[in-house]
Write a structure and sequence with these properties.
There is one protein chain. The protein has about 220 residues and is an alpha/beta fold. Helices cover about 50% and strands about 15% of the residues. Bound molecules: BIS(adenosine)-5'-pentaphosphate.
Length: about 220
């Protein structure tokens, strides 16, 4: 199964990509996580990416396209993968098409999670992430067992730099302008599944799984 998770920042792409990755036993490829790990390790790419990410802007296409092209050719992607946060622009989608064609593989579905902006802003304000392993929590909807401590590795939880309300609003604007056109791009191909994403994680997860089963 080769999937793309599409949706505004905070729509739940990462949450559901992780659940689907466990369900189908295929890797979740989050360009945001990969970029954040470059920032943490202070690589050249990380230094370049940070300037854009802190402002809520997209990292230039050529940087992310190269990351994804390499990653989908790794051994664990043979049976499929879930792209989380990529593509985010039409040129990225075109570059992905070209790369998949060269590898003689095709996308199965694009899961578009649709959530109203105000719900997103509330969700992002409550998100906390592990400063060490990147696991994601929410102060109301997905509390860690011990306050402010990661269940997975015991490290401290922090608010992401780009989750401050002003930056979230900028990210939503960038999404409208640069990423939303991908809905039409994949709709025309007949592989788009749009899921109403305002509800509990369980409800939305069930809707996604049913839509994927029905469309098989
Ligand atoms: P990235 O890390 O991809 O951020 P994003 O798309 O903005 O997505 P988020 O991780 O913020 O949200 P999500 O949709 O995964 O939601 P989540 O499941 O975490 O990218 C960050 C930056 O990197 C970008 O701004 C850009 O600069 C750069 N970048 C990355 N990819 C790029 C690309 N391809 N091209 C260029 N630049 C790129 O959920 C959010 C919160 O809500 C969590 O706390 C969660 O627990 C909670 N939650 C989820 N679902 C529910 C629910 N149903 N009910 C209640 N709470 C919920």
């Amino acid at each position: 199964m080769r999937l793309i998770m599409l949706g505004a920042p905070g729509a739940g792409k990462g949450t559901h990509a992780l659940l689907l990755s466990k369900e189908y036993n295929i890797p979740q490829i989050s360009t945001g996580d990969i970029l954040r790990s470059h920032i943490k390790n202070e690589t050249d790419l990380g230094k370049k990416a940070k300037k854009y990410m802190d402002k809520g802007l997209l990292v230039p296409d050529e940087l992310v396209v190269e990351i994804v092209k390499k990653r989908i050719q790794e051994e664990d992607c043979k049976e499929g993968f879930i792209l989380d946060g990529f593509p985010r622009t039409i040129p990225q989608a075109e570059a992905l098409d070209k790369a998949l064609e060269e590898l003689a593989i095709a996308l199965d579905k694009v899961v578009n999670i649709d959530v109203p902006d105000e719900v997103i802003i509330k969700r992002m304000a409550g998100r906390r992430v592990c400063s060490n392993c990147g696991a994601s929590y929410h102060i109301e909807n997905k509390k860690p067992l011990k306050e402010n401590i990661c269940d997975e590795c015991g490290s401290e939880l922090k608010q992401r730099e780009d989750d401050k309300e002003e930056t979230v609003r900028k990210r939503l604007q960038v999404y409208e302008e640069q990423t939303k056109p991908l809905i039409e791009y994949y709709e025309k191909r007949g592989i788009l599944l749009t899921i109403e994403g305002d509800g509990s994680v369980e409800e939305i997860g069930n809707k996604i799984k049913s839509a994927l089963e029905v469309s098989k």
